Amino acid sequence: MFKKQEKKLENKPDREIIDGFKNKYDFLSNFHKCKVEFEGITYPSSEHAYQASKTENFKAKKIIAKTLEAWETKIICNEFKYGQTVGYQRQKITIMYNIVRAKFSQNASIRSQLVNTGSALLIEGNTWNDTYWGQCGNLGQNHLGKILMQIRNLFRESD
Predict the structure, then answer these.
(1) What are the residues facing 19 on neighbouring strands?
(2) Cβ neighbours for 121, distance < 8 A, ≥ 6 positions apart
(3) For 3-9, what is the mean pLDDT?
(4) Per-residue model confidence as pLDDT tens digits over 77-123
(5) Which domains does the chain have, with CATH numbers?
(6) Which of 143, 144, 125 is nearest to 135 (CA)?
(7) What is the number of helices (H) and of strands (E) in the chain?
(8) 3-state secondary structure of 120
(9) How confident is the model at residue 158 (pLDDT cuts 50, 70, 90)?
(10) What is the value of pTM for the model shown?
(11) C-alpha–C-alpha distance, residues 69 and 127, integer Å
(12) Residue 128 has what DSSP assignment?
């Protein structure tokens, strides 16, 4: 007679996971080169803007925008005292949200790429043990990924 066909069970997540902002998804990285105007200064990346937010010195912010590579800003700006204050620490997620929103608002091509990630889970997977903004070895708070998904949803709703 008829053989009952068995469904092959696959261990698939409910949605796509983008784990790591490299290659095809490097536009999600804060190190991706694209102009970002934030608080009156145009930076060459959102990483530059975020790191510059760790100082209140406008001249220092302008130097960061014009002369440093993104990786250099991370090293140098971690020494700024303002970025280490309790007040700054309480605001840093909001600051990052505003910078990342500016990045995608001001750059239409990467905005559409972000929206085209659909409902994928965005994880800033890394190997440098950043468990605050991302995840390392599946451990971490993934705040950058959460911000990107919030902004993606905002743009999807407004289109």
Answers:
(1) 123
(2) 13, 15, 16, 17, 18, 145, 149
(3) 41
(4) 989 999 999 999 999 999 999 999 999 999 999 999 999 999 999 99
(5) 17-158 (1.10.357.40)
(6) 125
(7) 6, 4
(8) coil
(9) confident
(10) 0.89
(11) 20
(12) S
Surface-to-core class of residue 62, CB atoms within 10 Å of its CB (0-12 exposed, 13-18 middle, 19+ buried): middle
Q: Convert 93-127 to b/e letters by CB count within 10 Å (16 or more is b).
A: bebbbbbbbbbbeebeebbeebbebeebbbbbbbe
Alpha carbon dihedral 138, 141, 143, 146, in 10-degree steps, equals 70
**Helix residue ranges, H only, the chain:** 46-52, 58-67, 70-77, 86-106, 108-115, 143-158
- As given in the structure block, the two tokens for residue 29 are 């990285």
List of long-range contacts for 65-70, beta carbons under 8 Å, 24+ apart = 65/41, 70/30, 70/31, 70/44, 70/45
**For range 40-58, the mean pLDDT:** 97
- Asked whether residue 4 carries a pLDDT value surpassing 60, the answer given is no
Rg value, the chain, Cα: 19
Half-sphere exposure of 75 (CA within 13 A, CB side): 5
Tokens of 123: 């994880």
pLDDT category of residue 15 using cuts at 50, 70 and 90: confident
pLDDT above 60: residue 8: no
